[in-house]
Write a structure and sequence with these properties.
It is a single chain. Helices cover 26% and strands 27% of the residues. It is of the alpha+beta class. Strands 7-8-9-6-10-12-11 form a seven-stranded mixed sheet, sandwiched between helices. Strands 3-2-1-5-4 form a five-stranded antiparallel sheet, with no helix packed on it. It is elongated.
Length: 278
């Protein structure tokens, strides 16, 4: 580190070379400037060499090499997003024209509604079910309507889950519910079979596991003393048909929210949905 000093005097000029805080004088007609740290100070000094008063002005300027310019790292490529896990959506019902349009088959109708809206063909038969593959948004989904008759639905569902290794949290079952008001939806993350033979069969084929979501569609209670077994095979009158069609559209939206945004948002949508006022 060096200190550059310039001395001005009425009598003569001198150069002062300062090192480590000590200044050495030498007569000179030319002022020298030497590099040192960034610091300025001025003071008055008498010199024996000239016997006159000199004005000393010192400037300390750091002599350093310019700081290293930090290396600019190349932008890192974004990590690819993990592929969405497929969903299996199963609707329960009975096969054949005899049961088409009955209360017990609203699960089938929910699957048909999704397939029509998302352009998914249900023409193939696999795993004892009418089966289709497609997407909701960018999420792959599989749709299934077991053709085993209601009480043996688990044979189909268990085989699909096992073959595709689908996590149970992404297996949704849609079925009719006598204990819900007509056209009412209820989305639950898990639960028992509630006396529903189709759900009982599915749980049996999933080794008793009940931790999978389900969408229940209310079909109401049978009137008077009608046998529930007969009631669930009844078709809908005109007003009921309009209400159910409205409910199926709400169910479609609930399924879209479920696979794209998660269970909680879908449940909130279902719980806040209002029935059609006829």
């Amino acid at each position: 580190m060096k200190l550059a000093c310039v001395i001005s005097s009425t009598a003569s000029s001198a150069t002062v070379l300062c090192r480590r805080g000590r200044c050495l004088f030498s007569s000179s007609s030319v002022a020298k400037t030497l590099n040192s740290s960034s610091y300025r100070r001025g003071w008055m000094s008498n010199t024996a060499a000239t016997g006159s008063l000199h004005q000393i002005s010192c400037s300390m300027i750091t002599s350093t090499s310019p700081p290293d310019t930090p290396a600019i790292s190349a932008p890192q490529p974004e990590k690819p997003k993990p592929k969405p896990q497929p969903w299996l959506i199963v609707g329960l019902g009975n096969p054949g024209k005899r049961y088409a349009g009955t209360r017990h088959n609203v699960g089938f109708e929910m699957i048909d509604t999704i397939a029509d809206a998302e352009g998914i063909s249900m023409g193939s038969v696999s795993f004892k079910a009418q089966f289709g593959k497609g997407f909701i948004g960018d999420v792959p989904i599989m749709l299934a309507k077991p053709q085993t008759f209601m009480n043996a639905s688990g044979e189909s569902v268990g085989a699909i889950v096992s073959y595709y290794k689908i996590p149970l949290k992404q297996v949704l079952v849609v079925f009719d519910d006598l204990d819900l008001p007509f056209a009412k939806l209820r989305l639950l993350p898990k639960g028992g079979h509630g006396g529903h033979n189709g759900m009982r069969s599915i749980m049996n084929h999933l080794k008793g596991n009940r931790d999978f979501p389900r969408l229940r569609i209310g079909i109401g209670r049978p009137p008077g003393k009608m046998d529930p077994a007969s009631f669930v095979l009844r078709t809908f009158n005109r007003q009921e048909r309009e209400e159910l069609d409205f409910t199926l559209q709400n169910g479609l939206e609930a399924m879209r929210i479920l696979v794209l945004e998660g269970f909680d948002k879908s449940a909130t949508f279902v719980n806040s949905s209002k029935p059609l006022t006829v």
